[in-house]
């Protein structure tokens, strides 16, 4: 069937190619009111099948029967513009101007290897227009996307400068990223810092791209992604950058200054409180450990107990050191953009430069970026047009190690921010002799700021393409070569003067990573109108995609602070050297045919055939077909009487996509990363071991997506919107999964498992008020999805308390339920775990009433929001504009691991202070406490699932931007400047949430001691945008 | 016409570049099975895998941070010393420390894939290595050398797994590798399991070198000593006696007179230690060499030592012997000197029996120069004294107390403890002497990863724990099979009795 489909397409293409014969040619340019060329305008000979459409510059060329040229009429039509009919009258050149039809404005949407009018779309593609989103305080495209389109889930994982923001389509993984036709990695390539367990960086990808350079961003959410076949199971994010426009040179400056303040953070205990609660809880602990009343039957005897802090000390302690204040600070951003744009009919250019300097809200946390872009296009001849896009960037970061909560070494491995929470307020910053104070095994928070941790990254994205007009506006071809190369180096040094990891030792790590992505594609496109009854648009192509990556690192110790990583050779400690390299190749062939019958019935067929080098020959290649159809109901005759309905289109798509294999099907022997040493470390071997068996049957995973949607427009498009429902089946998943229990290799690439994602999304745009002087429009979108297992991997059955079809992976949280705190003297329920039988422990709930606590009592909670919402309002009044945009989520659960800072176990370890949350802990002095007390030690209970004590709803609604602008485009100033807009923007103005951790969005993993995520900031930006 | 030419060129270029040939995989940083292992040097590197579980580091990356047998956490000391009558219960860190110290292993049911059970995969791996060496074109001498290391590793791992879980499913037939047989988790009989270990050890004993030039490699004495341990614990006294005598007959080993020196870095290589984890003083316990971090687990947080400014735990070390055990020593016994009954803490406060949970275990002094917290002291795993005491026990079990067997025990007492020979009552009967040997082993081998196995062999594990106040010990001296294994076991693998 798939092969027949392909044959049909090839037949259609070739047969159409031979339709043209010897004819006269009419040429011309179609422009809009401003004089700019209008691309994509349909030019059809009236009453005839032949037609064409204008190219990127609005030029067209149409063959007309030479003999009948005299009385022929050309029909120019383009969505959003008023249709015009012009008699040819024996002319060979006809230039016309089309007037915008403000009643029926339609967008052009990039669909991958082409564009289409939104009204002709048969698939679910979301478009985000970055020019409508405030960019002042934002260095990364991802930051513009929160809540901006239905089907997007955008989550701020880390709020450090350049921190990772995960962008996902319908909750899937990282989408395939395509910038101006070039496939790029969407992830960052942050080098590590060796074996030092203070990682702390979670960088986002796309760091080299200036948000101000972007023309549009499209998300291919359903089978529309199938044109990208192999790599598109997570959907596709297509970014198109700004291009030059022929005409007078236009210069614009866009600059802003931003001021940021930390949002409310965890509240450390004041000095007196720390002492008070330490005393109270340690007394409880003393009694509990000895089974003394009220924790046990032994009579209370405190003779062996000494209170650590005297009452007098507590009373005179006061507030103490503001450790957070020593580490946190106010932040700022300077952002300056200049762009120049213009050109002639022979050449157009767009040039831009950006300087972005962010001072982070933790000390020693910065980002400075320089980036430049040059997009030029030359008409070489009638047939050839050369396009060159170049983007270069240099990013420099200072890392505060708080951007990511990693490292399991506990208190000794804390970074400055964690240390600031761990240090009790009664400890001064400096000892009386001027040296840094030290508490327990943790380094002094202020001294930890002396750790050097810098990342430098640079990237160059160059992309050259040649457009070939074989038959103008009908048969065109494109050759594309794109190359993205990135380099990144992390320079990490702990001075010998800094106590960290229980040592004063100079430790250095210098690591660099490189990667290169190449896209080579040749495409041909054929567009033809057959009178009024059919518009045909076929594109076909081949491509080869290459990625190679490599890295190099050196880690060592014991050297001069003044020299540090400048000369690693001078270090006397052992030098650990590492390097790696990898290459992946993909080859593809693809074809898409779009049929538009009678401007009512739309059909689109695509087939992509992809090959990956990492599979065995019989399984290298895979077809990824898709089909989609649309019915423009509003163009039916029977709809002409329903004037309120201006757009009504029903569409459906079904298609398959694959996933770029991270796995290799070929067997291998690799060096063990861990040495075997003899003679006390002086003889070192790295054993070689089998790391993979040959796996000739390994195949592409297949994702099958079905999507049905309805696009509507009411009251002359005052109200527009879309509704989509989707089901996606991910089958024969390919993952490194658990092997059979007695296999040599514990995990290995396996095809297995099946997941099903279902959901719906709605988007709505309304123009609520529209007068000459005032307008108000509203945009709203909501997304809902679920993702469940249908079938598990063969050797990875669900845990005992799980079900086969539970939500996938981290989207589900399993917990034992608790209900209050066990009070002194209260009867201990029979099912209470032995390790939790003393007062102050949480009371466990025997869910199934069988009198014992086991996996049958575990309850599950979904980590996926029931709804992801974006909601914006824009107002204009005269020269003022105001927009308020918010986004949020509802119905997701999560664990708030910052509660570890309020866990008596941490406080009583003597190694850390904590937060005010400890005041809610149960103690003999605070029997109304709602949190577990000193006798509770979760690790000691050793249950197979967690407790619900830290379970929290992650619902929130964040006011992302409030922007007020004033535009001057008349008066004396305009002699020099076309227009000026001044604006003020508040980003993250406030958040409505019941979540008590740092932020419901930011990742804060469970780590020993407690996570201290980089705080969220509120930013005020004042800016100016001028066009010259 | 020109257009048609261009079109054809394009079409041609499309079809050529669409060609699906010449598309071989690019594999980097790995060796292909087509040409590895082939040479002697290849097999040298390949067979070295045998050593992987027998080190002391934080973890290794075969599985999810699975611990080595001699790691400070989840290693032989935590598994075989903490859950005995000699050590205090340690609750401060909760989790596995608390449960190991209480002798309750139930919690291991929910353990993930860092579980030692995962080492069944290592057994399969060694089976593959042995088969690959066997069918290679190397000389017989080289084959035997590599196979001896692989079989030593396989046998020793099987021995430890036996003392954790009982007989575990294993693959000994290389033709079953990478087939569905790897899902058959039926436990073999103890008899066949033990005979596999003994065959491997005999082969290893025959072909391993007596004194390998690289200190730390497996050696003949280790194979014979482990064979002795195996038979002794299986109560095959006759074979145990034979193996012990064979070890002695190697003529290489003798007891040292400085017991403390066995654990010091300066004298870690000596006439008595048959095999020790060779530790690198510069190692951090990561990817490099083995480390010895035990001082951090033994010293209380307020104990200022030679170099270390206190251990990681408070108020006592994680490994903290009981006063009761301390009191069983003859006060003159030099072996007791490694238990510190009094000290002055960092704040100047006097610490002694009245305010200490137990004596401070200072078996591995922190003396090496580099680093502040980690040591290079090798960790002895098999000593000649053990062979002598095992021989004494094996003889006694067969023939009762004999002059030879009593003499063996007294030799150890005299050389290591500097104390008098056993009393007449201690050697009065087979039972009395057997008990005396167990006591002697306690004083001699505390904190060397042996005690629990000794107690189990003597049938005294549960009673000894209860006598030491560890009344909440678990239902079995063996570990439960992790639930995830049961889940994939298709009902074939039996859970350890009691769980």
From TrEMBL, chain A:
Q: Does the keyword Metal-binding apply?
A: no
Listed Pfam families? CarbopepD_reg_2, Plug
Keyword presence, Transmembrane: yes
Q: Which residues form the signal peptide?
A: 1-21
Provide the primary localization.
membrane
Q: How does it sit in the membrane?
A: Multi-pass membrane protein
The TonB-dependent receptor plug domain is annotated at 118-236
The entry assigns this protein to a family as follows: Belongs to the TonB-dependent receptor family.
Q: What is this protein called?
A: TonB-linked SusC/RagA family outer membrane protein
Automatic annotation (TrEMBL), chain B:
Where the record annotates domain RagB/SusD, the positions are: 348-460
Q: Which SUPFAM superfamilies match?
A: TPR-like (SSF48452)
Q: Which keywords appear in this protein's UniProt record, sorted alphabetically?
A: Cell outer membrane, Membrane, Signal
- Work out whether the entry's keyword set contains Signal: yes
Q: Where in the cell is it found?
A: Cell outer membrane
Record's keyword annotation contains Ion transport? no
**Family recorded in the similarity comment:** Belongs to the SusD family.
Return the protein name: Starch-binding associating with outer membrane
Which species does this protein come from? Dyadobacter arcticus
Its organism's taxonomic lineage begins at:
Bacteria, Pseudomonadati, Bacteroidota, Cytophagia, Cytophagales
